[in-house]
Specification:
This protein folds into 2 domains: about 10-190 and about 310-400, Zn peptidases (Aminopeptidase, 3-Layer(aba) Sandwich); about 190-310, Alpha-Beta Plaits. The protein is built from 10 helices and 17 strands. It is α/β, with parallel strands linked by helices. It has helices spanning about 10-20, 30-45, 115-130, 155-160, 160-165, 215-240, 285-295, 320-335, 350-355, 380-400; strands spanning about 50-55, 60-65, 75-80, 100, 105, 140-145, 170-175, 185-190, 190-200, 205, 250-260, 265, 270-275, 300-310, 340-345, 360, 380. Bound molecules: N-acetylmethionine and zinc ion (ZN) (2 copies). One zinc ion (ZN) binds near residues 84, 113, 148, 372 and 373. This is N-acyl-aliphatic-L-amino acid amidohydrolase. It is found in: Cytoplasm. One of its GO terms (biological process) is amino acid metabolic process.
Length: about 400
């Protein structure tokens, strides 16, 4: 029976399942247990382990494999330790048990997002070290908290710390997404999250009357403008087979608030939008567009941001770029299909890219449905193990990229 314990199970899978059982689930992740697990891995692998407390209780753990030429900028392998909450009643198995079914599927929150990648990094390094391999560039594995709620007490702070500067990262890998086909997806940029609350104010009064200038009418106009834009972008994506989801701007109305009673016309109503702005959009012009939709709706309609990312960056994917050449070359050598895309949501990669470090988002999961944040998130053990193989090829290639003219 596949779930009867580690007997006959690949030790990397057993380790993965142990890590999945640590309850680093938002909103109260057990970060202490994750850090203790990683410290233990550092001891087992003979790696140094540094803990950087970026905010009270929020520790970034850094495991380091020093290269033969530590003067060269390093390779940063980043992963986050927290996972999103679950609706337990919708799961076939306990999401923190790491149940493995008879076919080899491991069910657990974090199995795709992104505890698989954390263990794959560690196991690839373990294997390469055991083979006696050495590479010029130092490899740092960073395990960060808080990504699932925006990274504001994680990577966003860490990239501005002296301990981060001291890592002297020249190139980074972070998370990607599964791909249901034979191909692997790699993300070279991200859309910018803009979370916007539009507040409409107007005349209150009795619910039986035709009041003039109501908050609801004006909010309706704004909502129509936002959703008309959404439809335009949706059709632009649908009509062009060359465009992928991340290349267009997406808008969703995610909250409507206001009102106190059926028979009271409210003086204030608001609508919240989750906007993901494509990296080629002129952000100043786009903000002006939001402003004019509010103005056109009438007096007393304003908007504010609760997230506003304004530093979209694109990591080069042309063959002349040495990092891309090293990364994509491995896929060519291994005869694997690679599909470069723009990440539709936001990851910690945006903070890494914003401080000038090229970063690719990659989670080695092909033949796997995208189940991050979903019920029954799962990963097949064979796909997980294949991912370790892929990293055992990627790390030597990246950590052997010669010194670049720009100093990285
Ligand atoms: C804007 S901070 C929230 C981050 C979250 N990341 C993912 C991968 O779901 C998101 O894009 O909604
Ligand atoms: Zn993630
Ligand atoms: Zn996530």
């Amino acid at each position: 029976m596949a779930n009867q314990g580690p007997e006959g199970e690949h030790p990397s899978v057993t380790l993965f399942r142990q890590y999945l059982r640590i309850r680093t689930v938002q909103p109260k992740p057990d970060y202490g247990a994750a850090v203790a697990f990683l410290e233990d891995r550092a001891r087992q692998l003979g790696l140094s382990c540094q803990k950087v407390e970026v905010a009270p209780g929020y520790v970034v753990t850094v495991l380091t494999w020093v290269g033969t030429n530590p003067a060269l900028p390093s390779i940063l392998l980043n992963s986050h330790t927290d996972v999103v909450p679950v609706f337990k009643e919708h799961w076939s198995h306990d999401p923190f048990e790491a149940f493995k079914d008879s076919k080899g599927y491991i069910y657990a929150r974090g199995s795709q997002d992104m505890k698989c990648v954390s263990i794959q990094y560690l196991e690839a390094v373990r294997r390469l070290k055991a083979e006696g391999r050495h590479f010029p560039r130092t490899i740092h594995m960073t395990f960060v908290p808080d990504e699932e709620v925006g990274g504001h007490k994680g990577m966003e702070l860490f990239v501005h710390r002296p301990e981060f500067q001291a890592l002297r990262a020249g190139f980074a890998l972070d998370e990607g997404l599964a791909n249901p086909t034979d191909a692997f997806t790699v993300f070279y940029s991200e859309r910018s999250p803009w979370w916007v609350r539009v507040t409409s104010t107007g005349r209150p009064g009795h619910g039986s009357r035709f009041m003039e200038d109501t908050a609801a009418e004006k909010l309706h106009k704004v909502v129509s403008s936002f959703l008309a834009f959404r439809e335009k972008e949706r059709q632009r994506l649908q009509s062009n087979p060359h465009l992928k989801e991340g290349a267009v701007t997406c808008v969703n109305l995610t909250k409507l608030e206001g009102g106190v009673a059926y028979n009271v016309v409210p003086a204030t109503m608001s609508a919240c939008f989750d906007i993901r702005v494509a990296p080629d959009v002129d952000l100043k012009a786009f903000e002006k567009q939001l402003e004019s939709w509010c103005q056109e709706a009438g007096e007393g309609v304003t908007f504010e941001f609760s997230q506003k990312w304004t530093q979209p960056r694109v990591t080069p994917t042309d063959s002349s770029d040495p990092w891309w050449a090293a990364f994509s070359g491995v896929f060519k050598d291994m005869n694997l299909n690679l599909e470069p895309e723009i990440f539709p949501a936001a990851t910690d990669s945006r903070y890494i890219r914003a401080v000038g470090i090229p970063a690719l988002g990659f989670s080695p999961m092909n033949h796997t449905p995208v189940l991050l944040h979903d019920h029954d998130e799962r990963l097949h053990e064979a796909v997980f193990l294949r991912g370790i193989d892929i990293y055992t090829h990627l790390l030597p290639a990246l950590a052997s990229v010669p010194a670049l003219p720009n100093g990285s």
